[in-house]
Amino acid sequence: MPFQTLRGATDLLAHDLTAWRRLESSVFTIAQRYGYRELRTPVIEDAALFLRSVGETTDIVQKEMFRFTDRGGHDIVLRPEGTAPVVRAYLQHHLHKTEGFAKLFYLGPMFRAERPQAGRLRQFHQYGAEAIGSASPWVDVEIITLCVHTLLECGVADATVWLASMGCREDQARGAQHLQERLTPHRAKLCEDCQARFDRNIFRVLDCKQPGCRALAQEAVKSLERQPGLPPTPFVLCEACVAHFNTVRQGLKAGSIAFDDTHVFARGLDYYTRTVFEVRSPRLGAQDAVAAGGRYDHLVEEFGGPAVGACGFAAGIERVLMAARPVDPVPVAEARQGVYVAIPPKSNLMPEAFRLAQRLRQQGTRTTMDYDGRSLKSQFREADQLHCQVVAILGAQELESGSVTMKDLAGGEQRTLPLEAFLEAVRA
Ligand SMILES: [Zn+2]
Ligand SMILES: [Zn+2]
Fold first, then answer.
1. Is the pTM for the entire model greater than 0.85?
2. Which residues hold their Cβ within 5 A of ligand 1, which is an ion?
3. What is the pLDDT of residue 109?
């Protein structure tokens, strides 16, 4: 084959898309039920959008962005994630003025120049939701609940929610200092990336791809003094952040959303504050979350908007499909449907046959026909393979009498009807 998909990119055939369409329709239904409205943003964006939001020291920005300069010298990327574009659109279309609090959801391809040999996709797909314009912890509760609800609807029944609070910027600064102090004696044992990020973003050690780094960070966190009523955390939460976190936990319990707040983790993107969560499925590897998200209270302001809070999540569609329990078995025999318009070969009736096919399609009937002048026998065989219900034969006799001969492939009966009666019979 001279041409193949690039590594890390895949074709989706009709066979695959059955599950995709079902997932998309579940996401639409549930998101709308929670009052979220759809937003579609372009796949290309200004590179600065992600440098400013996701963070210059993150793997995404440093190693994984598809970034190029166009002929006009603009620095462009294929979007690696959905939150920054949604916030950009929220401000660009003045939703902060017209709606204030906006609830948006999206679905589409994302791009990361990851190593395809590790089985990672370079074009993958996400759906997600963002609630922008509120600092209320109940928005966090709604976002997590919506995330879990969509996953359940998509067939992911055995997922667990890991919940934590990363605190506000001040709490993060205090926590970073403590973690640096505890890790300094072990600094030489950390990987190159973690050493480079040690001063600027120490929390990245918690989600480093090297298990050795993660283990050291976990140990360091466990050695920190526990704050009363809180699970172990590297973030030294202030009173307001503790209250926020407690309301989120209380709200999830009220909504019967099971969660586990005993794990120490941090989301790797720079914009997160306070609530963060990851949804994990035993069907995926231990490292991979099926969905994740959290609160980002400074991003809108950093993009030039008002100082309002926001919270959101994203789920990886390929991962959701992997984590979902297998759905209803393939039907044994697909129901027969539609019409196959057959004409005797060399009959010069193509224009009439095509006109008939169009009349059928316009009235809503799935219609197929042969364009290659094959034998009637071949046409019948194809009609059977395509699970058509009816073969409509249009020969010289039929044309002359303004009729169509129809053979029911399910029942086997054959009859000749005037054209209008035939169309009526097919409609019925
Ligand atoms: Zn705080
Ligand atoms: Zn590391």
1. yes
2. 167-168, 171, 238, 241
3. 98
